[in-house]
């Protein structure tokens, strides 16, 4: 008797979009949908739909954390709908914090505009290793999808 065992391939990622873009029909009035928000008809999409000034200013500062998050997502910037992307501006006061958190469906790329910041994440293998670094103005840092980071 011959027994063959092979591991099953598993994939947990968002599928590619079915169209070039799907600008949210009304980004300020989200509706329940299965994948993203309803699309504005492509013939009505304009160049200004792909631009935003939302991150020009900081968000509201948290007294406890000393940080302010201003998040642009499909609900606030319709062009992000179905693109698998959001972007945030985070401003820190001295010794301000962004608590550890996870994005289960997205990789995060951080660009530091000014100052110095300690960043890091914990890998699941090997053995919950901490990857941490002090970054400086102009630096980028990548937090892989699904890993706890700060």
Automatic annotation (TrEMBL):
Q: Where is the Cupin type-1 domain?
A: 53-150
Q: Where in the cell is it found?
A: Secreted, Extracellular space, Apoplast
Query: Known SMART domains for this protein?
Result: Cupin_1
* Cystine pairings recorded for this chain: 22-39
What the entry lists under Pfam families is as follows:
Cupin_1
The UniProt keyword set, sorted, is:
Apoplast, Disulfide bond, Manganese, Metal-binding, Secreted
Cellular component terms per the entry's GO annotation: apoplast
For Mn(2+), which residues are the binding ones?
A: 101, 103, 108, 149
- Which residues does oxalate bind? 98, 103, 108
MF terms from GO for this chain are: manganese ion binding
Q: Which Gene3D superfamilies match?
A: Jelly Rolls (2.60.120.10)
What is the similarity comment for this entry?
Belongs to the germin family.
Name of this chain's protein: Germin-like protein
Which organism does this sequence originate in?
Ceratopteris richardii (Triangle waterfern)
The lineage, from the top, is: Eukaryota, Viridiplantae, Streptophyta, Embryophyta, Tracheophyta
